[in-house]
C-alpha cells in the first residue's frame, strides 16, 4: 500500500500545474492571434458589400421545399381522411389540439379497422401502411416542441402496431397478396401503338406521343418525373444518338440530405437509329427542331391550336395532361386496359421486365431504372414463363429423370429392331433386284423438295418399311 502511495505522489509531482497552465496559455494566445489576423484581413477589404435580407415568404419557400411534393401531398391526403373519420365518430375531439398519445392511439386503431376508399373498396395492405406513415409524419411536426413522437417505436403505440399488423394480413388475403402497382405493356402492344396512324411523326400530336414513348422506354422514368425533363437534358452523341442527363430523381435527389460520393449525374443513352430507319433519334431530333423561340425550358410542350405557323406552343405541357399521356395513347390505339392499371409508370415497369427477360443481371438493370437496391428492383420484375419452367424442372425428383432415360433407351432399342427388320427384308429381295449395296448409307442433303427430285434418282427396293436419314 505504501509503495502504491509513493508511486501516485511521483506521478502527481511530475505533472507540474504551473507548467501545464503555461502551455495552455501559450495555446490560447496563438488561437487568439490567428483569429485577430483573420479579422484584420477582412477589415482591409476596400469594397464594401451590401446584402438583401430574404423575406419570410422566401424563407418559408426554401424550408417547405425540402420535402418532395408527393410526400407532402400524401401526408395531406391521409391526415384529411383521419380528420374526417374523427369528426364523424368523435365530433367533440379536435385533432389539432390533441396531445394525448394514448387517446391518439385508440383513435388510430379504430381508423385502421374501418377505413376504406371513398368508393367503399378495401385498400391494399401497403397503401394502408403508407397512410399510417403519413399520419406519423404529421404528428411528428405537431409534437416537435413537446416530446418525441413515433408510431413505429413509442410504447404507447404498441396497440396501433398490432392492429395495423393484423389488418394488413387481412387485406393481403382479401386482395390475394396483390399490390396496387402499374401493369406493364407487352412488346406486341408497343408495336401496335407505334404502327397506329395517330402515332405518326407527321402530325404534332403523333410526334409528341412518339417522343414520349421513346423517352419512357429508354429511360424507365417514374410516372411523375416526366414533368421535370428539360430540353437541355438532351445531349447529342458523336454516334448520332442522345444522352439524357438526369439531374434529380426520386433516388438521386441531391442537396444536403442526399449527398453522393460521385460527381457524375446518371445518364441514359438513346442509341442511334439503324441505317435506313426512322427511330427514336429521328423523332427526337425533329421534335427539338420544332421548338419555337423564347420557349420554356421544359421538354414537353403544348400543341398550338393553329399549327400553320408553329406546331408547338412556348408553354410547357400541363402536369395533369402529361400524367395521363400513356392512358390516352392506349385509348387512341385500341389497347385493352380492362382490369389493368395503365399509367405512365407502366413504361418503367415494362422496361425493367424486358431487360430481366433478356437475361441482364440486376446491376445492369438498376443502372437503367436507377434503383438503389435489388429489393426495390424486384417490385418491378417477375420471372417469365421460361424462367419459371426451367426452375420447375430443376425441382423434379431424380426418379423422373431415370424414367425419362429409360424411355429414351427403349425408344433407341425399338429403332434398332426396325433397322434390323429392314436389313432382313432387303437381303431376301437381293435375288430379285439389283444389289442394294450401292444405295446403302446415302446422306441426302437438306434441299427443297423439287431440287431433291431433280438431282437424285434413288432405286428403292420393295419393302414394307423404309427409313431415310436426312442430315444437314
Explain what this protein looks like in three dimensions.
The chain has 472 residues and is mostly helical. It has helices at 2-14, 17-43, 56-64, 69-89, 101-114, 125-142, 158-174, 187-194, 204-219, 280-289, 319-323, 325-333, 345-357, 362-369, 374-378, 385-394, 398-428, 449-455; strands at residues 234-236, 242-245, 267-270, 301-303, 312-316. It has four domains: 2-36; 64-174, no CATH class; 187-385, hpI Integrase, Chain A (Orthogonal Bundle), CATH 1.10.443; 398-455, no CATH class. The strands form two sheets. It has a three-stranded antiparallel β-sheet, covered by helices on one side. A two-stranded antiparallel sheet has the order 4-5. Strand 4 (301-303) and strand 5 (312-316) form a beta hairpin. The model is unreliable at 430-449 and 455-462 (pLDDT under 50). GO terms for molecular function: DNA binding. This is Tyr recombinase domain-containing protein. Keywords: DNA recombination. InterPro entries: DNA_brk_join_enz (IPR011010), Integrase-like_cat_sf (IPR013762), MAVS (IPR052787).
Index terms:
single chain; 472 residues; mainly alpha; hpI Integrase, Chain A; 4 domains; 4% strand
Amino acid at each position: 500500500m505504501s509503495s502504491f502511495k509513493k508511486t501516485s505522489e511521483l506521478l502527481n509531482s511530475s505533472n507540474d500545474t504551473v507548467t501545464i497552465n503555461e502551455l495552455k496559455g501559450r495555446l490560447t494566445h496563438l488561437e487568439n492571434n490567428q483569429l485577430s489576423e483573420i479579422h484584420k484581413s477582412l477589415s482591409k477589404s476596400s469594397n464594401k458589400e451590401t446584402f438583401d435580407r430574404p423575406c419570410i415568404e422566401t424563407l418559408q419557400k426554401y424550408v417547405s421545399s425540402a420535402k418532395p411534393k408527393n410526400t407532402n401531398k400524401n401526408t395531406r391526403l391521409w391526415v384529411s381522411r383521419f380528420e374526417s373519420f374523427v369528426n364523424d365518430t368523435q365530433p367533440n375531439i379536435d385533432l389539432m389540439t390533441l396531445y394525448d398519445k394514448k387517446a391518439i392511439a385508440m383513435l388510430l386503431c379504430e381508423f385502421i379497422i374501418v377505413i376504406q376508399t371513398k368508393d367503399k373498396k378495401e385498400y391494399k395492405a401497403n397503401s394502408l401502411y403508407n397512410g399510417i406513415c403519413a399520419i406519423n409524419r404529421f404528428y411528428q411536426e405537431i409534437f416537435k416542441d413537446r416530446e418525441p413522437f413515433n408510431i413505429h417505436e413509442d410504447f404507447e403505440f404498441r396497440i396501433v402496431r398490432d392492429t395495423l399488423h393484423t389488418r394488413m394480413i387481412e387485406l393481403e388475403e382479401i386482395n390475394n397478396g396483390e399490390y396496387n402497382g402499374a401493369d406493364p405493356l407487352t412488346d406486341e402492344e408497343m408495336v401496335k401503338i407505334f404502327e397506329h396512324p395517330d402515332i405518326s411523326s407527321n402530325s404534332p400530336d403523333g410526334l409528341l406521343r412518339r417522343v414520349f414513348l421513346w423517352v419512357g422506354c429508354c429511360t424507365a422514368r417514374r410516372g411523375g418525373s416526366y414533368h421535370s425533363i428539360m430540353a437541355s437534358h438532351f445531349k447529342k452523341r458523336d454516334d448520332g444518338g442522345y444522352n439524357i442527363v438526369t439531374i434529380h430523381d426520386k433516388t438521386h435527389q441531391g442537396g444536403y440530405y442526399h449527398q453522393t460520393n460521385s460527381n457524375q449525374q446518371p445518364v441514359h443513352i438513346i442509341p442511334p437509329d439503324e441505317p435506313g430507319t426512322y427511330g427514336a433519334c429521328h423523332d427526337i431530333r425533329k421534335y427539338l427542331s420544332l421548338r419555337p423561340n423564347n420557349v420554356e425550358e421544359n421538354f414537353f410542350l403544348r400543341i398550338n391550336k393553329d399549327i400553320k405557323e408553329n406546331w408547338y406552343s412556348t408553354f410547357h405541357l400541363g402536369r395533369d395532361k402529361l400524367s395521363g399521356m400513356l392512358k390516352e395513347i392506349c385509348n387512341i390505339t385500341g389497347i385493352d386496359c380492362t382490369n389493368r392499371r395503365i399509367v405512365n409508370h407502366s413504361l418503367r415497369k415494362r422496361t425493367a421486365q424486358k431487360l430481366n427477360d433478356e437475361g441482364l443481371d440486376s446491376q445492369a438493370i438498376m443502372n437503367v431504372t436507377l434503383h438503389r437496391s435489388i429489393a426495390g428492383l424486384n417490385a418491378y420484375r417477375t420471372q417469365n414463363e421460361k424462367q419459371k419452367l426451367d426452375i420447375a424442372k430443376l425441382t423434379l425428383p431424380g426418379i423422373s429423370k431415370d424414367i425419362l432415360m429409360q424411355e429414351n433407351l427403349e425408344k433407341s432399342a425399338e429403332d434398332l429392331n426396325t433397322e434390323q427388320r429392314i436389313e432382313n427384308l432387303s437381303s431376301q429381295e437381293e435375288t430379285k433386284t439389283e444389289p442394294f449395296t450401292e444405295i446403302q448409307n446415302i446422306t441426302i442433303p437438306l434441299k427443297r423438295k423439287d431440287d431433291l427430285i431433280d438431282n437424285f434418282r434413288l432405286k428403292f427396293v420393295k419393302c414394307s418399311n423404309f427409313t431415310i436419314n436426312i442430315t444437314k
